[in-house]
């Protein structure tokens, strides 16, 4: 395995050069000469068997192929640094790495983390987000939060809560349009998401309004983009609760028909069975379940 690894010193210099944008910028960041950077890049190019940088004017800049490689190398270095920090003998910082869907992380988890910090000071919770188009479980984490558990035999699975879906809109749009009856939605713009197909159809069917159709549909690629469009008053959307409860409490969203809701996703926390479960991780899991509504 060691023989298959590129020269690590050259790899580190390459990552900086690709990120910084040029040999000159890398030499300044690393406090090396331009020639030293150039030689290490040449060593790596020779090992890989292809060029990584191309000349543009007076500068050498990374090719698109090299930039893609650099992103993966950078993530690998971050992973190594994180592991060294957590497993180092003298390390005192308690770290919990949480992987969660983007909307859940932004709209529910992060707004609640102050409460955990007050309850358990000295624990660093680091949240990374995934999109629904990405693999369900990837990367390095201590806790993964997902809508549906995957490979459950490899994880301790803790139920968190079940969502319900209902209509959402910006308060200003509701006031402007004067929506008080479901049938009025036929004259409005409906916002939906490529990664959540059928959300409107499921709602109209479950609430016995199957014949209802939108005056206009706008579709976005990811739900957090759709949600921003709803907040900006572009139209009406389907929103999950309690995930968006804080947005309603803060006046950024409103529910015109809160009693007309349909079952949504179920969230679970997943902890690798073969991972260490120190006291601070157990404390986080206990807190997480305590602040979640009953599953």
Please characterize this protein's 3D structure.
The strands form 3 sheets. Strands 4-3-5-10-6-9 form a 6-stranded mixed beta sheet. It has a two-stranded antiparallel sheet with strand order 1-2. Strands 7-8 form a two-stranded parallel sheet. The protein folds into 3 domains: 2-78, Winged helix-like DNA-binding domain superfamily/Winged helix DNA-binding domain (Arc Repressor Mutant, subunit A), CATH 1.10.10; 94-160 and 266-291, D-Maltodextrin-Binding Protein, domain 2, CATH 3.40.190; 164-265, Periplasmic binding protein-like II (D-Maltodextrin-Binding Protein, domain 2, 3-Layer(aba) Sandwich), CATH 3.40.190.10. With 295 residues, it is of the alpha/beta class. The mean pLDDT is 88. It is built from 10 helices and 10 strands.
> How large, in whole angstroms, is the Cα Rg?
24 Å
**Structural class label:** alpha/beta
The CATH topology of the largest domain corresponds to D-Maltodextrin-Binding Protein, domain 2
- Biggest β-sheet: count, sense, barrel? 6 strands, mixed
Strand content: 15-25%
Helix content: 40-55%
CATH class descriptor name of the largest domain: Alpha Beta
What's the architecture of the largest domain, going by CATH?
3-Layer(aba) Sandwich
Total domains: 3
SSE succession:
HHHEEHEHEEEHEHEHEHEH
Shape verdict: globular
Low-confidence stretches: none
